[in-house]
Amino acid sequence: MSFLRQFPATRMRRMRRDDFSRRLMREHVLTANDFILPVFVLDGENREEEVASMPGVKRQSIDLLLKTAAEAVALGIPALALFPVIDGPLKSLDGAEAWNPDGLVPRTVRALKQAFPQLGVITDGALDPYTTHGQDGIIDDNGYVLNEATVAALIKQALCHAAAGVDVVAPSDMMDGRNGSIRQALDEAGFELTRILAYSAKYASAFYGPFRDAVGSSANLGKADKYTYQMDPANGNEALHEVALDLTEGADMVMIKPGLPYLDIVRRVKDEFGVPTYAYQVSGEYAMIKAAVQNGWLDEKKVVLETLLAFKRAGADGILTYFAIDAARWLKDQ
Ligand SMILES: NCc1[nH]cc(CCC(=O)O)c1CC(=O)O
Ligand SMILES: [Mg+2]
């Protein structure tokens, strides 16, 4: 940068002086188009439960979820990501409720797509809400999650969701080869336009705690962990390897998860592959911000919008965030 002159000829503060020049040099813009809203659905009618560790987030029955979806649509949010709360008696060792065509997720997908055809609906591909042990897949006698047996189950789950009309399936289980197997099965069944959003670089993170409370899998999981399939937070190159494999297998979009602590990975993935790249601001990140806000320690609107902008700056094309509705509203009012 030999053209750079020094102070006092160069004054960085000149461009920061007025709102007009600050706006002119702004590199990134946040809009509602950047958001995917994760939602929790439970069975029944007119039912709503607060998630204790996620103040402001609710588990809702389908009829009430439709109202949340209507808000998202009105604010211009392109898509929501659906997570089910499965009743205890429906959970099993193999999670077979995950591919029940009349299960909670397919019923919700049908209701959402009927009411809001223009709203993108994304479903999670993993067995943890459905298994008695809380693992994302099918386990052997030692509790090890079996790769191929799990992929076979995930195929049934993806076909079940596709048949219900879902737009995007999002495998979040971290089994090897699942994207390619799901892609092939979808294509063979005539669902060649159903998209795959791969949770490609999903870390074995402590930030998922509140989510596991929300879907009710933490009690089932107990002291067990997910280290044999989710990624080690110490690794960065491994994330690029995972993303490369998922793209080869036919993933349309890739995701990095969690969000803020992994923005370096978002940037590396975007630079390396230049494909549609998403990041998940997960439940624990939401809980941290909410707790500080509730203590009066942080300004919610400013802090949330700053974090979401940071995802854009790091290269994310979109952000899964529990703040999506609030943030879209703040952006509209601003
Ligand atoms: N496959 C389950 C799944 N899908 C999304 C999340 C976490 C989302 C969040 O924390 O907000 C998890 C939890 C986990 O892997 O244990
Ligand atoms: Mg993988």
TrEMBL record:
It holds the Pfam family ALAD. Belongs to the ALAD family. GO terms for cellular component: cytosol. SMART domains: ALAD. InterPro entries: ALAD, ALAD_AS, Aldolase_TIM. Mg(2+) binds at E242. GO terms for molecular function: porphobilinogen synthase activity; zinc ion binding. Signal peptide: none annotated. One of its GO terms (biological process) is protoporphyrinogen IX biosynthetic process. Pathway: Porphyrin-containing compound metabolism; protoporphyrin-IX biosynthesis; coproporphyrinogen-III from 5-aminolevulinate: step 1/4. The active site is at K202, K257. The lineage of its organism: Bacteria, Pseudomonadati, Pseudomonadota, Betaproteobacteria, Neisseriales. Homooctamer. Keywords: Heme biosynthesis, Lyase, Magnesium, Metal-binding, Porphyrin biosynthesis. It catalyses: 2 5-aminolevulinate = porphobilinogen + 2 H2O + H(+). It comes from the Bacteria. The keyword Metal-binding applies. This is Delta-aminolevulinic acid dehydratase. Its EC number is 4.2.1.24.
